[in-house]
Write a structure and sequence with these properties.
The protein is an alpha+beta fold and 284 residues long. It has helices at 18-25, 73-81, 108-114, 150-156, 190-198; strands at residues 9-14, 37-44, 50-58, 64-68, 90-93, 99-104, 119-121, 130-134, 137-142, 204-212, 220-224, 227-238, 241-249, 258-260, 263-270. 41% of the residues are buried. The model has no long low-confidence stretch (mean pLDDT 89).
Length: 284
């Protein structure tokens, strides 16, 4: 018997305040999205810690879609709904009608470059299967239940809800600074994220790691000389070895004595750093 598909999110949001409400909640600038445009964004708590990540797309009839391949739709419905007061907004949970899968760009280098883009365009046409381009790939919406290849996801550094997208981390720590717009107006978590930038207090970074043997169970601490210096969040077998994603302290990235679950990490490859939008930041 095949495993059931991973729950995914497909929400249709209508009403004149649809984008305004999402703009108020999300880390990204959303009010300027035009029909036929899409943008990835994070949703944080007041501490700037991650709760969700999703694609926001506006189709030609001005309906707004929230799309995510790796989390159940009712979680985002609950999150958005509790922030709606008297606004003109209606949420339709279409998650049971179609499955969302992520198709990453075939080239690892191309995917890494595309992750730094912000806005993508799409036709908005919906047939038995329709697609929305996103930085580094596309979301395919339809009856298919296949998942993105996990090795490809890890190689591309694409964070996964429930693993890298978790309250343990901020967007800055998992390579999503470019999905945070700090001068777009108030949003949940803005003050905390602004302080991290102002005081240069982001201490951890997303890295790709490799080791020998079978993959460790996740999550797991990354340890150096008996001290925890990071967290392994994803891991999967690749040949006779394993590949994974971890969030590691800056000072430990170049170390050669990192271990996880008692076994050594052979290589650590940090992903290119990105910068939050909306601020003129000094270059390191």
């Amino acid at each position: 018997m095949s495993a059931p598909p991973t729950p995914s999110t497909l929400l249709r949001i209508t009403g004149r305040d649809a984008l305004a409400v999402l703009h108020r909640l999300a880390t990204q600038q959303l009010e300027d999205l035009a029909p036929g445009q899409a943008r990835m964004t994070c949703f944080c708590d007041f501490r700037g810690r991650l709760l969700h990540r999703a694609c926001v797309a506006v189709d030609p009839d001005h309906s707004v879609w929230l799309i995510c391949d790796d989390a159940p739709g009712d979680e985002l419905v609950t999150f958005v709904d509790r922030h709606v007061f008297r606004e003109d907004l209606k949420i339709e949970n279409r998650s049971a009608e179609a499955h969302v899968r992520l198709d990453l760009a075939p080239s690892r280098d191309a995917a890494a470059r595309a992750r730094h883009e912000s806005t993508t365009t799409w036709t908005g046409a919906r047939t038995s299967e329709w697609t929305v381009p996103v930085p580094g790939g596309r979301f395919a919406v339809g009856p298919a239940v296949s998942r993105t290849n996990e090795v490809a996801r890890i190689r591309a550094g694409w964070p996964r809800n429930g693993q890298e997208i978790a309250e343990s981390f901020t967007p800055f720590e998992i390579g999503l600074a470019h999905e945070v717009h700090l001068s777009k107006g108030c949003f949940t978590g803005q003050e905390a994220l602004m302080r991290l930038v102002t005081y240069r207090s982001v201490r951890r970074r997303l890295v790709r790691v490799h080791g020998r043997g079978g993959p460790p169970g996740i999550p797991a601490d990354v340890v150096r000389a008996g001290a925890t210096v990071g967290r392994l969040t994803s891991a999967i077998a690749e040949g006779n070895a394993w590949i994974g994603l971890a969030v590691v302290q800056h000072g430990a990235i170049d170390a050669t004595d990192l271990v996880v679950a008692g076994a050594p990490i052979d290589t650590v490859d940090p992903f290119p750093a990105t910068q939050p939008l909306g601020l003129e930041l000094e270059k390191e």
